[in-house]
Amino acid sequence: MVxxxxxxxxxxxxxxxxxxxxxxDELKSISPEMNFYFFADTVFSxxxxxxxxxxxxxxxxxxxxxxxxxxxxxxxxxxxxxxTGIEVMIYLRPDEVCxxxxxxxxxxxxxxxxxxxxxxxxxxxxxxxxxxxxxxxxLAQLHLISDEKISLVEGIKNIGFNAPxxxxxxxxxxxxxxxxxxxVCTDFDIDAEKFVLLLKSFSLFKQRQQSNWCLVVMxxxxxxxxxxxxxxxxxxxxTDVKLMSNLHPAEFHLILASAYCLISVSDAxxxxxxxxxSFFHQVPAIALNTKTNSEYAxxxxxxxxxxxxxxxxxxxxxxxxxxxxxxxxxxxxxxLTKFDFEKQVSELKTMLLQTKQR
Length: 358
Known about the structure:
By secondary structure, the chain is α/β, with parallel strands linked by helices. 42% of the residues lie in helices and 16% in strands.
């Protein structure tokens, strides 16, 4: 089977991109004969498994409703589909969907994108892939697409690293925070506003506890580093904040596993990859109470308001209650067994094949 994917730059730097990479990686694992053709504005290098075949085309797709976009959709893409033998197209943004002679899917990350969308364009889709139960329910409530045409792929692949030992974690803390305990943030969508919220929350925690604890922020997108460094330069506790990017996956997961607690300030309504990455390492999490995160309130500390004080209060709870921390860390790790990621991707593969054969 040959699959085409319209993947802009965000595909390699966002939470939805990470989820879609996991889905495609799993598709490749269970179907090494599959071929993938990516059409992207810029060349990127997603870390897929070496199974299967992936091809990349750097072609400027242009802005929505622009002449360049129209040329890409009506001239370039049809020729590429014919030349490469693409049998199914997957889009990652609604405004990229266009009329093509093959079955088309949309990997949806925000139901709001659909609510005001052109229904005629929706009719061009054979199915929609969603990454959380909330998104599936929200999409179904819009009555734009039947339930059997909604494919839920909710979960996360097992992290391919051995759990670090106590000595490994101790050495990591010595190397990165001078042996001090630390909170960690690994959000994909961290920006200036969310970073300021994180810093203000950490300030309140430091003021109330008078602790020597640190905050480590591991960026998924290096482009944001300069802006966040500027914000950090005038921060009172800047020597206790470590801002990192371009980490090797093994180093990333070692630091994450060594953290006392993860803090997520993301308000994205899709599967919370950052939170569940921490659960793999039995690290508890504090996260904003989005409609998606509310489904997991039993295994993480949810913050009701997007303000510093509520985040700080939850940080202090973990600081004072080691037993609670251990309990939530264990529950979070156990909760991962609820998701059968491989089964859901297998069901998606079946849908792709059935759609292609009609």
